[in-house]
Amino acid sequence: QNLLNRRFLLPKYLLFHFAGRDKINLYSTACSDGSEAYTLAIALMEKLPFASCNKFFPIIANDIDSEVISRAKSGRINIDDSDSYYADNLGINLNNYFVNKKAPLKIADDMVENKIAGIYSYEPIPELKNAVEFKQSDILTELGKIEDKGNSVVLCRNVMPYLNDAYINRVVKTESDVLKDGSFFVIGDYDSLKNMDERLLKNGFYRPLIENRNLFQKGNQKELTDRLLSGYLI
């Protein structure tokens, strides 16, 4: 739910930031069952004309867990009543994006396994399904494949506390090496347990948005200063 709320703020900013770009590369690393990637795709579809959305798709979503990727590739996803309620409050009708209600998918160790009612699996409509490409892979492997030209957004949210410090340092170093000025790295609230903000700020990233402290941009703060002077803030 928190993810949807924050992602809903990004499309307008991304369109402004990447104005003039024909292609924007979106990556959802450690994507689990695909909820994050679908959420971002829906936010883009809600906020932008479909022709503008095309340059953001497909979102490349990867996870090292073969089971969750198998579920993501199944063409179905679990949605519970609280997800629908929260989306409704944001003015998003999930019935416009998901159809064919059935019994929930079984995913080992998934938190929804602890819930009894209100969970069903749904099929994304073709436009949404085609907006995401799933693959089984680890974080570093996928980061190393990125061919960035300052036109990428990498989501790597709420996974760092499960990784050791050596691996985290390699992730940050790889991101710093691979991403060019103007591209983004997005973390989650939970990642503060591993001081991800400090690690990123020390490796060539800064926060371009006051309202979203989990969004980090590669480069310097000149753009932020320019936008403050011109009165443009999201």
Q: What does this 3D model show about the protein?
A:
Strand 7, helix 9 and strand 8 form a beta-alpha-beta unit. Strands 6-2-1-7-8-10-9 form a 7-stranded mixed β-sheet. The protein has a 3-stranded antiparallel β-sheet with strand order 3-5-4. It is 38% helix and 18% strand. It has 234 residues and is of the alpha/beta class. Helix 8 runs parallel beside helix 9. It is built from 11 helices and 10 strands.
Provide mean pLDDT, rounded. 86
- Strand element count: 10
Helix content: 25-40%
Percent range for β-strand residues: 15-25%
Approximate shape: globular
Give the neighbour order of strands across the main sheet: 6-2-1-7-8-10-9
Order of helices and strands: HHEHHEHEHEEHEHEHEHEEH
C-alpha end-to-end distance: 20 Å
Compute the gyration radius: what is it?
A: 17 Å
Unreliable residue runs: none
| SSE class | alpha/beta
Largest sheet: 7 strands, mixed
Helical segment tally? 11
Features:
234 residues; alpha/beta; three-stranded antiparallel beta sheet; 10 strands
Q: Gist?
A:
The protein has 234 residues and is an alpha/beta fold. It has helices spanning 2-7, 10-17, 35-47, 50-53, 66-73, 81-89, 126-129, 139-145, 165-178, 196-201, 222-230, and strands at residues 25-29, 59-63, 77-80, 98-102, 119-124, 132-136, 152-155, 184-186, 205-206, 215-218.
Task: Produce the secondary structure layout.
Layout lengths: L1 H6 L2 H8 L7 E5 L5 H13 L2 H4 L5 E5 L2 H8 L3 E4 H9 L8 E5 L16 E6 L1 H4 L2 E5 L2 H7 L6 E4 L9 H14 L5 E3 L9 H6 L3 E2 L8 E4 L3 H9 L4
Parallel strand pairs: 1-2, 1-7, 2-6, 7-8
Antiparallel strand pairs: 3-5, 4-5, 8-10, 9-10
